[in-house]
Amino acid sequence: MLQDVAELSVRKHNISDLSIINSAELRFRFFCFIFIHLFHFFYLYINDNLMKIQYLSLLFLLFSCSKNQEPIVQNQTGNQNHELIAYGKDLIVSTSKYFGPKGSISQTSNGMNCTNCHLEAGTKDYGNNYKAVFSGYPKFRERSGTKESLEKRINDCFERSLNGSPLKKGKELEAMKAYINYAGENIPKNEASETSGIPKLNLLNRAANPEKGALVYEKNCVQCHGKNGEGSLASGNSGNYFLYPPLWGKDSFNVSAGLYRIRNLSGFIRFNMPDNVATYQKPVLSEEEAWDVAAYIISRPHPEKFFKEDWPNLKTKPADYAFKPFADPFSEERHKYGPFQDILASRKK
User: Fold this and answer.
1) Residue 97, in any domain of the structure
2) Residue 174 sits in the same domain as residue 274
3) What is the pTM of this model?
């Protein structure tokens, strides 16, 4: 049952729902239907032969035009990169098809899709969406200590969340940029979207507990993500992509990914999981359960990949970034699981 629902969800976010009004094939069939019925009407009920010829000529003209039209993408701001945007969405939804272990373009990622972390192709409210990208990029980011382009941000995801290699400049990178900008173009430049990003939970007064989290995982997560966090491959697709992504192990995100940080992961889980059930307005897990199950997930093995250029200013390194060096005396375990109040307080001195 859940497998069927999930597969419907994946198909729901195929490129055809990127406001593609209709394909040339559908339009052609529609006009065939109309043409036949109107032809029948004119032939039987219009007695004036000249008028009949004029109407039929007009029908033939419409019929001919419909056959040769291209599919178009509806766009409120008049963006004309229709095909590029549609291709970009396909890359977001079916990343593994192109770049996974069996990718048709290259085999440079772990088999996860961008939409596994950026839900509903980066459009779901509070689901790590793309709504703030168009308004915010290029932007200064503390992690690199530089002003980053959208290309840099996309490739960060490829190297961290997809545990792969960066994309080369070319059509695919341009298409992903076009779609991501399209997804957030209704937000004016330099303005924030209230529903973008991942909401942060209230801090616990204790360390998040992986043992308690294992019980939460067993009850709420194992059916989709597997007993060993291995995820679920889509049926009928030759194992080409993950219907439910792996949460740890060799095919999961690496330790430098944003979701390896417990404050990000706990907020993402609380307002979005279980998939197709939890929402921001009606979460399923309590805040403590979300903290604990996030602790359990990051306590499991993940690919190790570090970037020496990360966090050049140690004072801006997030409190929940779990790897030395730090600008404070707290341990890696404390930074990984909390509690975080003392860490944050120490930075204000």
Assistant:
1) yes
2) no
3) 0.78
Based on the domain organization, do 215 and 278 belong to the same domain? Answer: yes
Q: What CATH number does the domain containing 297 carry? A: 1.10.760.10
d(CA 292, CA 209): 5
pLDDT of residue 31: 54
Q: What was the pLDDT predicted at 234?
A: 80
Residue 203 within a domain: no
Residue 259 confidence (pLDDT): 98
Mean pLDDT by 10 residues, the chain (349 residues): 39 44 47 58 61 59 47 44 95 96 93 96 96 95 97 98 97 97 91 90 98 98 96 69 92 98 98 96 98 98 97 97 97 98 91
Q: Scanning the structure block, which residue is given the tokens 């993950």? A: 242
Same domain, 81 and 52: no
Residue 49 in any domain: the answer is yes
The token duo for 233 is 């491959």
Q: Give yes or no: residues 35 and 103 share one domain.
A: no
pLDDT at site 40: 58
For residue 335, is it within any domain?
yes
Residue 235's pLDDT is: 67
What is the count of structural domains for the chain?
Answer: 3
Task: Say what the pLDDT of residue 348 is.
Answer: 85
Domain match, 56 and 97 both: no
Q: Which domain holds residue 221?
A: 210-346
